[in-house]
Write a structure and sequence with these properties.
CATH topology of the largest domain: Aspartate Aminotransferase, domain 2
Structural class: alpha/beta
Radius of gyration: 22 Å
Number of helices: 12
Shape: globular
CATH superfamily of the largest domain: Type I PLP-dependent aspartate aminotransferase-like (Major domain)
Largest sheet: 7 strands, mixed
Low-confidence stretches: 387-400
Bound molecules: pyridoxal-5'-phosphate
Mean pLDDT: 93
Number of domains: 2
Strand order of the largest sheet: 2-8-7-6-5-3-4
Helix content: 25-40%
CATH architecture of the largest domain: 3-Layer(aba) Sandwich
Strand content: 5-15%
Number of strands: 15
């Protein structure tokens, strides 16, 4: 049995071989296995050197100072530290926070937690192309606003927010600005010295590094007060305790170094693959790209197919590893909250699939995928149970 073609790079990426090699050198007896916090012997010193080298590589990718990088277990934890950390430390200044309804769950659920603690949250509605308007942000700011959190690139539709404009507005108002950049780091050029971004979350496994490691960038100039969320030995200047996972950190650093070198060539290749993939749909009607085409990362194509249920399509597309715009909960299939927030009705949201491309995607793979999609959609549309007229009926059967 051959494996399905992997077109789910937005969910996670394979570890680059060069990254895996660097990580392996930190694991076994012959490698850099020491505790980076051990100050009394060479095993510790070597590990600390490896960690600080990776901190430099990660900072370089963001044009940041190494002292601005705090290691975390991933973007989920970085988001928690940024949002809860800043909100709780600045509570005396105000309790109003601003975000959007199309953030990742790691942001939304953190805000929900803070809401239960008495914070007031405003949600900026995205435009139908998926972008957040800087004017709307300006209008939502209040005297007691202390933090704004808006993602750089959306994980479902790949749409890019203008974090430069959003950050400038926050800066002018004296409000902290956090961005979840898990989907943009390693894919878009990010210059933290040019941007008014105080806090930025990233995750290694979204750009060919390992899972379980990420970082929070904290702008030194802004002197951001943060309440630590994990207490212990005082690692990471007290912001995040816990023995540093040398191999994971070295993996993140190597992935960052490679991304800095290849970002331009990777992007050009991936963009041409996406164009090739979408041009494969020319013989198909009634499909649409969800979210802005212009303001979008190269590796994302979120497409809806009228009159076809996404779950049925996914089942039929066994040769492709992709994601639907729906999330299965134990009892029902809920259409994506992101697609609904940008104005798609339930039927269209249900009929959406996210194809995401990456460093190892080939022309043969996208040709195969486009052909499989076109054939399957045509076939499903011929079947009465998935026909246009009955599509809502088949959707409700699935959800019940
Ligand atoms: C993947 C992702 C996360 C979560 O990152 P982890 O490192 O897996 O915790 C958060 N936000 C966005 C936008 C993501 O794509």
């Amino acid at each position: 049995m051959h494996k399905p073609v992997y077109l789910d790079y937005a969910a996670t990426t394979p570890v680059d071989e060069r990254v895996a090699e660097a990580m392996c050198s930190c694991l076994s007896r012959e490698g850099v296995f020491g505790n980076p916090a051990s100050r009394s012997h060479i095993y510790g010193w070597k590990a600390e050197e490896a960690v600080e080298n990776a901190r430099g590589q990660t900072a370089d990718l963001l044009n940041a100072d190494p002292r601005e990088i705090v290691w975390t277990s991933g973007a989920t934890e970085a988001n928690n530290l940024a949002i809860k950390g800043a909100a709780l430390a600045n509570r005396a200044k105000g309790s109003h926070l601003i975000t959007s309804p199309i953030e990742h769950k790691a942001v939304l659920d953190t805000f929900r937690f803070l809401e239960a603690q008495g914070f007031k949250i405003s949600y900026l509605q995205p435009a139908s192309d998926g972008t957040i308007s800087p004017e709307d942000l300006k209008a939502a700011l209040r005297e007691d606003t202390v933090l704004v959190s808006l993602m750089h690139v959306n994980n479902e539709i790949g749409v890019i927010n203008d974090i430069e404009a959003l950050g400038d507005i926050c800066k002018e108002a004296g409000v902290l600005f956090h961005t979840d950049a898990a989907q943009s780091v390693g894919k878009l050029k990010i210059d933290t010295q040019q941007l008014n971004v105080d806090l930025l979350s990233l995750s290694a496994h979204k750009f060919y590094g390992p899972k379980g490691i990420g970082a929070l960038y904290v702008k030194r100039k802004s002197q951001v007060a943060l309440e630590p969320q994990i207490h212990g030995g005082g690692h990471e200047r007290g912001l995040r305790s816990g023995t540093l996972p040398t191999h994971q950190i070295v993996g993140l650093g190597k992935a960052a170094e490679i991304a800095a070198q290849q970002l331009g060539t990777d992007n050009a290749k991936i963009l041409s693959l996406r164009n090739r993939f979408l041009s494969g749909f020319c013989g198909l009607d009634d499909w649409a790209l969800n979210g802005s085409l212009q303001q979008r990362v190269a590796g994302n194509a979120n497409v809806s197919f009228a009159g076809v249920d996404g779950e049925a399509l996914l089942l039929a597309l066994r040769d492709l590893a992709v994601s639907t715009g729906s999330a299965c909960t134990s009892l029902s299939i809920e259409p994506s909250y992101v697609l609904k927030a940008i104005g798609l009705d339930d039927q269209r949201a249900h009929s959406s699939i996210r194809f995401s491309f990456g460093r190892y995607t080939t022309e043969d793979e996208v040709d195969f995928a486009a052909q499989a999609v076109v054939e399957t959609v045509k076939q499903l549309r011929k079947q009465p149970s998935n026909g246009r007229a009955e599509s809502s009926a088949s959707t409700s059967t699935l959800s019940s």
